[in-house]
Structures are given as C-alpha cells and as structure tokens.
Amino acid sequence: MASTRPVKEVIGRTPVYLLGNGEKALIYLHGFGGSKDAVLPFKDSLRFPDTVMVFPDAWGHGERAKRNPLELVQENPINFARMVKETGDDVKDIASYL
C-alpha cells in the first residue's frame, strides 16, 4: 500500500500522500489554508515503526482548492462548517480504506 518514499494516491475523492507500512496509521491533516504538500516536509519527524502515514488535502485545500479557502469563508462563514464536515467525511473514508 505505502512505501519508504511518499506515494501520491487518491482515496475516495481525496488526494493524499502515503508513506510507510504497518498495521497502525497516522493521518496528518494540515491547518486551515494549508495542503498535504506543506506538511510533507515533517514526515521524518513523524515516523513510527509499523505505521503508515497519510497526508491528505482537506476539502477546498491544496489540489482540491478551486479558490482560496479564506475567500470562501469570508464570502459566507457557513463554508467553514462545510469544510470541516466534508473533511471529516474524507477522514472516515481514509480510515476505512486503511
């Protein structure tokens, strides 16, 4: 499934990097306005034995961004709630995949 080098995949509808192998999983989600690419440099400090690491793009972020996430929230604050809900659903899909 994963390897010693980051592998770019799509799980469900979510672009991710997968890294490592094992029975345990660590899903590392970036902050608001960030992306999986922004947190990938931290991969070496997050490695654990027997663990696959997943670095996803949150809904409306990174490869999934059609617009700047901050602009979406400023336009209509309900968009923040949608980001949280959609990202939560994506994390459930990733966990099921693993």
Radius of gyration: 14 Å
User: Percent range for helical residues?
Assistant: 25-40%
State the shape: elongated
Distance between the termini: 9 Å
Order of helices and strands: EEEHHEHH
Q: Can you list the strand order of the major beta sheet?
A: 1-2-4-3
Largest sheet: 4 strands, mixed
Content of β-strand: 15-25%
Characterization of the model:
The chain is an alpha+beta fold and 98 residues long. Helix content is 36%, strand content 21%. It has helices at 36-39, 43-46, 69-75, 78-97, and strands at residues 7-11, 14-19, 24-27, 51-56. Strands 1-2-4-3 form a four-stranded mixed β-sheet. A hairpin with a 2-residue loop joins β1 (7-11) and β2 (14-19).
Fold topology:
Blueprint: E1 7-11, E2 14-19, E3 24-27, H1 36-39, H2 43-46, E4 51-56, H3 69-75, H4 78-97
Parallel strand pairs: 3-4
Antiparallel strand pairs: 1-2, 2-4
Concise synopsis of the structure shown:
By secondary structure, the chain is an alpha+beta fold. 36% of the residues lie in helices and 21% in strands. The longest helix has 20 residues, at 78-97.
Defining traits:
about 100 residues; 4-stranded mixed beta sheet; 4 helices
